[in-house]
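Subject: Sanity check before I submit

Could someone independently write out the structure tokens for this chain? I want to compare against mine line by line before I put it in a report. The sequence has 111 residues.
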Amino acid sequence: MKVKISYKGNTLIAGIIGELDHHSAEYIREKIDAELVKATTKNVIFDFSKVTFMDSSGIGVIMGRYKNVSKLNGKLSVANVNPQLMRIFDMSGLRKVIPVYDNIDIAINKM
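---
Independent answer below. Compare away.
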């Protein structure tokens, strides 16, 4: 499991590679939170194009970052979610709170 961090303006793009589960949740949380303290970071996009699995810990990571970004008056969204993970987003209610886009470019344009 890895997190590839990149920026587009003041938007942090966190590309998750591998499984987003209880084994990797703390690492991902720490990595993204370390970037959020930078004055230039306002918005966050999770790139799920290389996520192979997600459990409830992954939902917690996303919701926790959503709350942190909201406190900074920023926005959080998710892009490139495969159909299997989309079912988890739907069942958990994440899509009612967090926008999900087909790709990074659309997500950036909606920020």
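---
OP: Matches mine. For the report I'm noting this point. The chain is about 45% helix and 30% strand.
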